[in-house]
Prior knowledge:
14% of the residues lie in helices and 4% in strands.
Amino acid sequence: xxxxxxxxxxxxxxxxxxxxxxxxxxxxxxxxxxxxxxxxxxxxxxxxxxxxxxxxxxxxxxxxxxxxxxxxxxxxxxxxxxxxxxxxxxxxxxxxxxxxxxxxxxxxxxxxxxxxxxxxxxxxxxxxxxxxxxxxxxxxxxxxxxxxxxxxxxxxxxxxxxxxxxxxxxxxxxxxxxxxxxxxxxxxxxxxxxxxxxxxxxxxxxxxxxxxxxxxxxxxxxxxxxxxxxxxxxxxxxxxxxxxxxxxxxxxxxxxxxxxxxxxxxxxxxxxxxxxxxxxxxxxxxxxxxxxxxxxxxxxxxxxxxxxxxxxxxxxxxxxxxxxxxxxxxxxxxxxxxxxxxxxxxxxxxxxxxxxxxxxxxxxxxxxxxxxxxxxxxxxxxxxxxxxxxxxxxxxxxxxxxxxxxxxxxxxxxxxxxxxxxxxxxxxxxxxxxxxxxxxx
Length: 441
């Protein structure tokens, strides 16, 4: 009886909408009522399967929606963090910009759904169906996608750091520009020659074998999201360890960086115009000593605890990067853009930061013994407890910089150095702080 009354109320709400029963105008109060009984909601949808469902910007965080029927629903920018959507029908739903962090999507049907720019960090989507879904720029970091069907899905620029893709079906998926795929778990995943790798090249059996995936040779067709040309044909899988002969390894460049710095440097030398987009990468604790990183785009990436001694980041875009406790001995940042970066407690002995943009950079507790900061812009930087012994500060701009506990023993200061007050440095200012006042060369 309760369900019948609720169903009647729901239909009344729907019929009183602006389109006489054809549209669900989002209403928080009605939404709360209708989601209190998924069974009644599904009954309503069964009776009116073509009804337009408008849940744009709806707040459904932590809602219990297991088995709910939301096919074709418009859920742009919906808040679904922590929601239970196990076995939910979201086929062809529009989830553009939706928030699905920690959402339970086990065995959910998202076939053909639009999840462009959706946030699915830590989502549990084991066995979910994402086939033919539109997922460019989605975030799957730490997500569990084990056994998920992502066949012919559009996965351009998707982030996969620490994602579980074991046994997932990626045949025909377009992974062009995908980030952090190298750090995902791909054991047993289905890969075919129609799978497009982050490099933009087609997957090979050797690539699959290296990554523990299973390879299928299919009739070649145009990559998904570029031009639809389905040519289905039965696939025969080979198992890891028995790769077919190939002439080259089509690993994404960032994979080579982590696996072999020398090979990365050679690749960069031979391909000076190669794509070096490494934004939002997690390279914490990586060993990248001597890496050629000149001109790379690494905005918002993390290198905490990494070993980057003698690496060269000249001219790189390193805005909002994090380098806490990193080893950066003799590392080159000449003319790099490091605005908003965090070097807290980093070891930067003899690092070259000359001409670098260091506005608002966090150097709290960093050791910059002998570092070159010649003509660097350090305005509003935090230099609390930083060791700048013998550092070169000639021509540096320190306007507004925090100097509490900063060590400047024998640091080089010139008349072109701008001190925190915004004035030019003087010999008296230098002497009071143990620095050396020298003429500019």
